[in-house]
Design a protein that fits this description.
mainly alpha, two-stranded antiparallel ribbon, 2 strands
Length: 111
């Protein structure tokens, strides 16, 4: 969801299985992107946007092909899987009763 940024909170402590789905080079890139506060160095928190969106790494791309390659999610299951991932990440970063959670659920109800 545009303006959310929950997925840009990259703290490796929250994702102990990174090496299971990232290549060694991607893992190096991922770790280099993590700022001291756990947020991506390329996430502009004031504007709530990605400053490298067009050039973001594969692991930042939420697409059926990426999720199939990284997690083995069949394309037919992509949408449900991605929604569950977003809800989990939003709850972990902002809380499950946060404004971001409310906005995301509202957006889903409009689809």
């Amino acid at each position: 969801m545009r303006g959310c940024g929950a997925c840009c909170h990259l703290d490796p402590a929250d994702r102990p299985d990174l090496a299971d789905y990232l290549t060694p080079a991607e893992l190096d890139t991922y770790l280099a992107m993590v700022g001291p506060d756990g947020w991506c160095r390329h996430y502009d928190r004031a504007e709530r946007t990605c400053t490298i969106y067009g050039q973001r790494p594969r692991f930042c791309r939420v697409t059926p092909a990426t999720f199939h390659d990284m997690f083995g999610v069949p394309p037919a299951e992509f949408e449900d899987f991605a929604i569950r991932c977003c809800l989990e990440q939003i709850a972990g970063v902002y809380g499950d009763r946060s404004l971001e959670d409310h906005r995301y659920r509202h957006t889903l109800s409009l689809l």
